[in-house]
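Technical annex, item 7. During the second reporting period the consortium partners agreed on a shared format for inverse folding records so that results from different sites could be compared directly. Each record opens with the tokenized structure and is followed by the designed sequence. A conforming record, contributed by the partner at site C, is shown below for reference.
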């Protein structure tokens, strides 16, 4: 098992297929040559890597590690202004260490992304938990369903597959497509795949058949028992929920193959390589894959007596399985994308005709939650105009899908926005839905 990301390809079977980009196969030897050539071109301390699920993205990411450059994967769909802001945050970040391999940006409740350092050691430990938990080998193959600029796709699909010397197919479009997913899985004789519940629901609705699968993995958002049952019935395999966050270098717990139906349907399994403690109802972790802290001149402190506070409420049953029961933070979880309502509110506040705005997450059958905004307007501004304003200022997944004009925002006794009342208001109405 490698201990430095730059050594991931060392000793790999040269003629075995590592990646398939569309219909072009790239062997491990060819991938190693591409990484070596790209590494010779790189210099500096931090490199922002923006791209879709392509061979070029993979090569650049691995080459940065080989060149001893810290890579920071970025979402290519971000508006130019937001991408520029994130790149600025990455310039000589305070607290960077020699062992840092990657910097992952995660949404914060203030709207300013937090910089999470992933060391070579923590990354290797996390990838090993994925490989070991599911028994991945060179006989396994999968499709890159999740974006590789997110921890989910990066650790569980890309790095776990390359570490186990399996094969990863990168969709020709560079991203998940419901139209090609079944064909992509068949093309590589996939034995498993990992995705968020939103994509699982799409697959359950659209894919008639899939190759024989050892398991289906789900992570990054709550998985409902009915979806577990539906997927297992349709595809004849077990659905294994996993739980993690950027601050734990992705996977922190998972359901193991062979677990009973009750565990598969109602828990996220047992911790992997980490200690867990429930403190005042909140799930907390400690261990080798937990980050040392955020980067920056004045970073927030998410630790309590050495334990990482996840912001999630939960319990642990007698067998050690974790059950996530709720969330402390305001962050909206739309299909695995974490969204700061405060950030969306800041953008809405700058829209002409909007006097006040408040944003909450509203239950959604497909995405788990979607972004809903209540706005106090001045004049004849309509939701369509607000949406157009947001398109150049927010990532696509951050744009409110519901925009509801209200006379006034509900408030608490302290004068703060009453988000509980607002969420109830949004669910209870039939507002204009913005595509």
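Designed sequence (site C submission):
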């Amino acid at each position: 098992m490698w201990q430095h990301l730059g050594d991931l390809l060392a000793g790999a079977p040269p003629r075995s297929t590592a990646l398939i980009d569309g219909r072009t196969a790239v062997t491990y030897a060819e991938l190693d040559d591409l990484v070596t050539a790209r590494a010779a071109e790189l210099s500096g301390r931090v490199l922002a890597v923006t791209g879709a699920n392509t061979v070029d993205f993979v090569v650049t990411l691995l080459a940065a590690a080989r060149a001893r450059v810290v890579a920071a994967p970025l979402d290519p769909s971000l508006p130019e202004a937001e991408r520029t802001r994130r790149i600025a945050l990455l310039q000589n970040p305070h607290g960077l260490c020699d062992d840092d391999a990657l910097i992952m940006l995660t949404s914060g409740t203030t709207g300013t992304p937090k910089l999470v350092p992933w060391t070579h050691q923590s990354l290797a430990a996390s990838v090993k938990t994925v490989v070991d938990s599911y028994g991945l080998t060179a006989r396994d193959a999968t499709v890159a369903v999740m974006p590789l600029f997110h921890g989910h796709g990066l650790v569980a699909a890309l790095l776990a597959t390359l570490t186990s010397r399996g094969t990863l197919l990168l969709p020709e479009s560079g991203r998940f497509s419901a139209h090609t997913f079944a064909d992509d899985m068949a093309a590589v004789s996939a034995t498993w795949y990992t995705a968020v519940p939103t994509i699982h629901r799409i697959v359950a609705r659209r894919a008639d058949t899939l190759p024989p699968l050892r398991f289906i993995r789900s992570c990054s958002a709550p998985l409902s028992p009915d979806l577990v049952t539906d997927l297992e019935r349709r595809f004849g395999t077990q659905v294994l929920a996993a739980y993690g966050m950027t601050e734990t270098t992705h996977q922190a717990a998972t359901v193991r193959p062979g677990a009973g139906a009750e565990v598969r349907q109602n828990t996220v399994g047992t911790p992997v390589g980490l200690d867990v403690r429930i403190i005042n109802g909140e799930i907390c972790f400690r261990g080798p894959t937990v980050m040392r802290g955020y980067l920056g001149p004045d970073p927030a402190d998410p630790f309590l007596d050495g334990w990482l506070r996840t912001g999630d409420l939960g319990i642990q049953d007698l067998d050690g399985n974790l059950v996530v029961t709720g969330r402390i933070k305001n962050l909206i979880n739309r299909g695995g994308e974490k969204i700061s309502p405060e950030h969306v509110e800041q953008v809405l506040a700058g829209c002409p005709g909007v006097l006040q705005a408040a944003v909450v997450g509203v239950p959604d059958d497909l995405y788990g939650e979607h972004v809903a905004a209540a706005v106090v307007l001045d004049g004849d501004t309509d939701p369509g105009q607000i949406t157009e304003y947001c398109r150049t200022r927010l990532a696509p997944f951050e744009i409110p899908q519901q925009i509801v004009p209200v006379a006034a925002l509900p408030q608490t006794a302290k004068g703060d926005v009453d988000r509980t009342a607002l969420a109830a208001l949004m669910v209870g109405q039939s507002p204009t839905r913005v595509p």
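The chain has twelve helices and 23 strands. Residues 5-325 form a domain with the Rossmann fold fold (CATH 3.40.50.12780). All partners now use this format for quarterly exchanges.
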